[in-house]
Amino acid sequence: xxxxDIELLADxxxxxxxxxxxxxxxxxxxxxxxxxxVVPLHVAADAPVPLLVNGIxxxxxxxxxxxxxxxxxxxxxxxxxxxxxVNGD
Length: 89
Hints:
- The structure is a single chain.
- The chain has one helix spanning about 25-30, and strands at about 15-20, 50-55, 55-65, 70-80.
- It is mostly beta strands.
- Strand 3 and strand 4 form a beta hairpin.
- The relative contact order is 0.22.
């Protein structure tokens, strides 16, 4: 069987996202949200953040601030797709 030429896919654009965490809340709690409300996430503040490619975790990183003030993800580990947990479970 011939190996696919990965170079054919090199310029395909994909969606990247960083998953910070998740929370559970009742509808009552959600309806009470106002500016300034704090929603605690089920994740430690220093936990690695999964990097998702089209919804599949392929790396983990740490949130950093760029000189411009924008947030970025500094990659600390790369894995096979789906190896990392996205929701902290």
